[in-house]
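Apologies for my clumsy wording, but can you show me some protein sequence, whichever is easiest, together with the matching structure tokens, please?
=====
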Amino acid sequence: MMNLERRKGKDKPVIRKSLVDLDGPIFKTLDRVRESWALRDDYRMPGPIQLTGGSAEEARTFSLLLEHEARTGRI
């Protein structure tokens, strides 16, 4: 996530800009479920990968799972 950019003649660490891909699998999934998420208490931990508890499959973040499924054609 971090990049070095030259600002005012000095290298500064900055967070790289990232646009949302409106045709990507993650946004399409959000679009499909956003109404039910607004009405129900239906969510997953969006944070970093946890190293304890659950299986490795459960430890992956939801966005990584969606990207993997899109690449392997399982969506």
In short: The mean pLDDT is 77.
